[in-house]
Structures are given as structure tokens and as C-alpha cells.
Amino acid sequence: MYLASKIKHLAAIYLVPLIIVMWGTISSPLAGESKAKLEGTVLNINKEAIPQAEVQLKHKDSDQMFNFESNEEGEFSSPSLPAGNYNLTVEKEGYQSYTGELKLRPNIVQNIKVTLVKEIAEEQNREEEAVASFKKGTELSRKNKLEEAIQEFQRAVELKEDFFEAYVNLGTFLFQQQKDDEAEKALLKAFELKPEESKPKEILAAINFEKAKILIQNNKMDEALERLKQSYNFRTDHAYVNFLLGYLYHDKKMKEEAIKHFEAFLQLAPNAPQVKEVKKLLKSLKKD
Q1: Residues 6+ away with beta carbon under 8 Å from 132
Q2: What is the C-alpha to C-alpha distance for residues 136 and 153, in angstroms, rounded to an integer?
């Protein structure tokens, strides 16, 4: 469903890391002039508490490290600390970590709020990139920049191996560029993913039909027949696939198959210029 919704709108949504640190101080005198204290809350972007977040302070001057963690309410409180400049790190599994700097002043309890954003899962990130490439490929194809569009669709399927729509577009434009073998490979993958969808089958039928014609021209009739059978399996209502199948079966003395495909041709293309010739052959086949 995640991916389907992205395709429907042809828009990729990018999650931009949002880390918000809100500073504030509340006065609370501490014993000793050089002592300071840090208190705060760790929240997610919905302002919900993040418990057991690890908070680490490193005193820049002395390299002393201070570690504590947030409670169930997301709150944390340090012990008395040396005043001065610190590096702050806040971490929680499943969230992007925060690093920053702060200055703790003597005799002041400093209060902060840290908002952490969840990490983007690797798979989700690849899907986002795949959708972005798909969208770019679509835009390029509308500008008739087919080579560039093909590159974007290729990148989309590399990022997302079950990206049906990208395989269909890749195969379609490769076919238009007369790169039949590459087109067939992409469309067979689309067919494997969604065998009920008609678009891959239509183009695969066309590819096999074109290859069959070339084989017939080169007098490779057995290979042509196999290609025509594949084309027919993808699309039984292709008139000229039935026409050529009828002829090849006729030449092989396979009368029943020839009759079947010639009759299908007549139903699918009743006004085709070959109709008279096919009717004559059918009459001869049925008479025999």
C-alpha cells in the first residue's frame, strides 16, 4: 500500500530530519560557584516522551564525560557539573541521534527540550528514491527524451525490484527504441509480478510477432512458429498472429490448428485485405 499510494500521486515525499532544541533557563542556585546543572526532556515530533534516551555530555576543557538517560516521561536531570562549554549527544535506538553544543553557566539549572526524528528505514528510503526516478522518467518521456527516461526507469527497478509500473515503462520505451531483447526482459519481469495485467502482455505479444516476421523472412519457420505461439499465449486476439499461425500450420499440414487460427483471423479482421485469400484456404482445408 505504501508504494501504491506514491505511484498514484506520482510524487515522492521526502522526510527531512527535524531536530529541534529549545533552550531555556530556570534559576535555581547551586552550591559552589563553578557548579552547573542540566535538565531537559526528550520528545518525538508528536511531542510525545521518549523514555530511556541516552544523554551524554562532554566537557570541552577537561574531556570529562557525563552520562544519564531519560525516564518514562522523557525527562532527564544531570548531577552537579563543572560550568563551561559542552558537546551534547542524545541517542535512542530507532531515532536519528542529535549532537550539538551548549554552555552551562555557574549556579544555573539550564533546561532544554530535544526533539528526535525516527530513522528512515533502508527499504523505505530506496522506495522513495525509486519513486523519484519513476517520476523523473515519466517527465522525460513526455518531453520525448527517451534515452534519459530509460535510464531513470532502469534506476527505479534497480532500487525497487518489484516496481511493476517502472518495468512496464522501461519495456515500452525500449521497444520503441527497437531494443527488443532488453524490452522483452523488462516486460517479462512485469508479467511475472502481475500476470493479470494486460499492458505487458500486449507489448510482449507485439515483440514476439515482430521477431517472428524477421524469422519468416530468413526462412526460419520453426523458430518463427515458436515465437508466434508465444505471442498468441500473451494475446489471443492479435489478428495477424492468428493469420501467420494459420499459414505456418497450413504449411506443416496441421489442418485443425490452421483452421482454428484462420477462422480467428476472419473474426478479428473481417475487412482485412487477406480475407479473400484466407477464405479460399479455409474452404480447401475443410473440403480435404
Answers
A1: 12
A2: 8
**Cα–Cα distance, 93 to 116 (Å, whole number):** 11
CA 96/CA 94 separation, integer angstroms:
7
Q: What are phi and psi of 17, to 5 degrees?
A: -55, 130
For residue range 190-241, list pLDDT tens digits in order.
999 999 999 999 999 999 999 999 999 999 999 999 999 999 999 999 999 9
- Give the end-to-end CA distance of the chain in Å, rounded to a whole number: 58
What's the mean per-residue pLDDT of the chain? 88
Q: Are 171 and 139 in contact (CB under 8 A)?
A: no
pTM: predicted TM-score of the whole model, two decimal places = 0.59
> Where do the CATH 2.60.40.10 domains begin and end in the chain?
20-116
Fold observed for domain 20-116: Immunoglobulin-like (2.60.40)
Half-sphere exposure of 171 (CA within 13 A, CB side): 25
Q: Is the dihedral of CA 136, 160, 129, 5 positive or negative?
A: positive
The fold adopted by the segment(s) 123-287 is 1.25.40
Per-residue model confidence as pLDDT tens digits over 80-137: 999 999 999 999 988 889 999 999 999 999 999 999 988 776 678 889 999 999 999 9
- C-alpha atoms less than 13 angstroms from C-alpha of 27 in its C-beta half-sphere: 0
User: Are 168 and 137 within 8 A, CB to CB?
Assistant: no
- β partners of residue 49: 43
Grid cell 500521486 in the structure block, residue: 9
Residues spanned by CATH 1.25.40.10 within the chain?
A: 123-287
